[in-house]
Write a structure and sequence with these properties.
heterodimer, A: alpha+beta, Beta-Lactamase, Arc Repressor Mutant, subunit A, 2 domains, 5-stranded antiparallel β-sheet, 11% strand, B: Aminopeptidase, 7-stranded mixed β-sheet, two-stranded antiparallel sheet, 8 helices
Chain lengths: 244, 259
C-alpha cells in the first residue's frame, strides 16, 4: 500500500535538494515534503556543534512544542537525540524507552499530542561530525514496523543528503562549525597576535591581566586549542581576527 | 550467538570488548604480523573511539571467538583514511547504504579448522554467523552493501565458508608485510538464506540487548562471581603473605586489577 503511494515523481522530489532554499525555511519545507512522501507525522534534523556542544537544527513540529521543548532545555537531555548519535545504525525509540530522561521528555510531549513512536537516523560526516534525522508516526505497532522497513533506505539517503547540504550551506553549516567568541575574547586574541604580553593587553584594555587570562582561557577552549598560539592560528583561520 | 555492541550499550560490555580487542591483537599482530597498535595485549585504533558497532560471536562458554567492526562510509573509515592505496588513487565509496567491515577475525586457537560448517565450534560456522549477523543488522538499517577490508588469508576463509565477496574494489595491495584488499559483500536475504542453509543456522543469531546485558554484561552474575572469587583469593594471599616481597607482589596485583 505504501509503495503504491510513493510514485516516481515523489522520489525525485525527496532527493532533489538543489531546488531547495539553503535557509532554515527551505530545509524545513524539505522535511515537510519528506513526511508527506513517506507517510510520517513529524521530522526533525539536528546536529551538534562539536566545539560549543550547541544543538542546531530545524523541525516540522508545531511552534508550541518547539518553544516548550527549548524552554525546558530538552535538547540537552533528549535521549532520542543524544543516544542515536553514538550509533552507526538507525535507532528505533522503543530501544530508548527505559532511559531515565525518556519519560521526562515524552510526558511533556503527550500534552502536545506527540507520541513516543519514532526513529532516529544518525549521520556521520567526513570530519567526524554527527547529525541526525528523527521521524515520528502515530500508528499501531504493526503498521509502524512495516512503515519503518519500507522507508528506511529513503530515510538514510535523505538524511545524508540533507546533512551534507546543511554543512555546505552558509547559514547552518557555518553556525555548526563556528564557535562563538565574545568581542573581548577576539580583542585579546588580536592583541596576542600583535605580539603583546598578557600584562600589556591588560594595560591596553584597562582590565587586569587575570581577566585577560580568563578571556584567553575561554577562547582556547571554545576553539579546542591546547595552547594560545594554536588558538590564535585557529582564530585567524576562522576569520575572527586579522593576521598582523 | 552474536551480541551487537554499539555506542549506546558499550558501557555494559567492556569485558566483551576487551576480549574482542585481545582476539584482534592475537590474530592481527601475533599471527598475521600486521603493523597494528597493541597495548596491554589489546589491539585498538582511532576508529574504535568513533562509536563503531562491534559484532562479537560467543561460544557456548561465553567467550568471544569472533568479531567484526562496522563503520559508516559517510564518516571517517579505514578504506578512505588508511587503506586508500588499495583504490589505486580512486576516491573511496561514500554512501549511507554502504557500510565498512574491518577487523574481521575468528579465534583459530579455540575453533576447529576442519570442522563441518554445521559444527558450532568450526571456523566456518563462526565466520558465517558473523556474516549473517552483519547482513541482517545492515538490512535492518536499510543498508544494501558492505565493503570489507581483508587480507588474502581472510579472503580464503570467506570463500571456503561460502562468504565470498561478489567483487573487489581497486586491487590487492601490499602494505608493509601485509597485502590488503577490499571485497564487496551484498547484504541480502539471498546471502543470509544461503549461509543459514549451509550452516544449519536457525532462529535469531542475535542475543537481544536486555538478555545480553543480564547474561554477559559487566555486571552479570558470572562476571561478579568471577570478581568475587578473585577478591577472596587476593585477600587470602594478603593474609598468608610471609615475606615483604610476597606482600608487595599481591598489592601490585590488586592495583593492576583495580585499574
Amino acid at each position: 500500500m505504501l509503495e503504491a503511494s510513493i510514485d516516481i515523481g515523489a522520489f525525485v522530489e525527496i532527493f532533489d535538494l538543489d531546488s531547495v532554499d539553503k535557509t532554515e525555511e527551505g530545509f524545513t519545507s524539505y522535511l515537510n515534503d519528506l513526511c508527506e512522501n513517506l507517510e510520517l507525522d513529524y521530522a526533525t534534523y539536528c546536529a551538534v556543534n562539536t566545539v560549543s556542544d550547541q544543538v542546531i537544527g530545524f523541525t516540522t513540529y508545531d511552534d508550541a512544542w518547539k518553544e516548550h521543548y527549548t524552554s525546558q532545555r530538552f535538547q540537552n537531555i533528549d535521549p532520542t537525540l543524544h543516544l542515536p548519535m553514538r550509533s552507526i545504525a538507525p535507532i528505533d525509540w522503543q530501544r530508548l524507552r527505559e532511559h531515565r530522561d525518556f519519560d521526562r521528555v515524552f510526558e511533556h510531549a503527550r500534552d502536545f499530542k506527540i507520541k513516543d513512536q519514532g526513529l532516529s537516523v544518525p549521520i556521520h560526516g567526513p570530519y567526524g561530525e554527527v547529525g541526525l534525522i528523527s521521524v515520528t508516526r502515530d500508528c499501531s505497532l504493526g503498521t509502524w514496523e512495516k512503515l519503518r522497513k519500507n522507508v528506511i533506505t529513503e530515510l538514510q539517503t535523505a538524511a545524508v543528503s540533507l546533512h551534507d547540504t546543511v554543512m555546505q550551506s552558509d547559514t547552518l553549516g557555518y553556525a555548526l562549525r563556528r564557535p562563538q567568541l565574545s568581542s573581548r575574547e577576539c580583542e585579546v586574541l588580536q592583541w596576542t597576535a600583535a605580539g603583546k604580553s598578557q600584562i600589556d593587553i591588560g594595560v591596553i584594555l584597562t582590565i587586569s591581566s587575570r581577566t585577560v587570562e580568563v578571556h584567553l582561557r575561554s577562547a582556547r577552549s571554545k576553539l579546542s586549542a591546547l595552547s594560545t598560539p594554536q588558538a590564535v592560528g585557529r582564530a585567524i583561520g576562522m576569520g575572527f581576527i586579522q593576521p598582523k | 550467538m552474536i551480541i551487537a555492541i554499539d555506542g549506546i550499550n558499550a558501557h555494559h560490555f567492556q569485558s566483551l570488548l576487551r576480549q574482542s580487542y585481545q582476539l584482534r591483537a592475537r590474530v592481527f599482530q601475533d599471527r598475521l604480523g600486521w603493523d597494528v597498535n597493541v597495548e596491554n595485549g589489546m589491539e585498538t585504533d582511532v576508529f574504535d573511539a568513533l562509536n563503531p558497532t562491534t559484532l562479537v560471536s560467543l561460544n557456548a562458554s561465553g567467550q568471544v571467538v569472533g568479531s567484526m567492526r562496522i563503520l559508516q562510509t559517510t564518516g571517517p573509515n579505514m578504506l578512505a583514511d588508511v587503506f586508500y592505496s588499495i583504490l589505486q588513487g580512486e576516491p573511496a565509496p561514500r554512501s549511507p547504504l554502504i557500510w565498512e567491515a574491518t577487523r574481521l577475525c575468528v579465534d583459530t586457537d579455540r575453533l576447529n579448522a576442519t570442522g563441518s560448517p554445521r559444527a558450532r565450534n568450526s571456523i566456518s560456522y563462526v565466520t558465517s554467523e558473523i556474516m549473517v549477523a552483519a547482513c541482517e543488522y545492515a538490512m535492518d538499517a536499510g543498508v544494501s552493501d558492505a565493503v570489507a577490508v581483508i587480507d588474502p588469508l581472510m579472503n580464503r576463509v570467506l570463500k571456503r565458508s561460502g562468504n565470498a565477496p561478489y567483487d573487489y574494489l581497486g586491487k590487492a595491495t601490499p602494505m608493509g608485510k601485509v597485502t590488503a584488499m577490499a571485497g564487496l559483500l551484498d547484504c541480502s536475504i539471498e546471502r543470509t538464506e544461503r549461509l543459514r542453509e549451509r550452516s544449519d543456522m536457525r532462529g535469531d543469531v542475535f542475543l537481544d540487548e536486555k538478555t545480553a546485558i543480564v547474561r554477559f554484561g559487566d555486571n552479570s552474575k558470572k562476571n561478579l562471581a568471577a570478581s568475587d572469587a578473585i577478591r577472596t583469593y587476593l585477600s587470602e594471599q594478603l593474609q598468608s603473605a610471609d615475606t615483604l616481597d610476597e606482600l608487595h607482589a599481591t598489592l601490585k596485583l590488586i592495583s593492576e586489577i583495580e585499574k
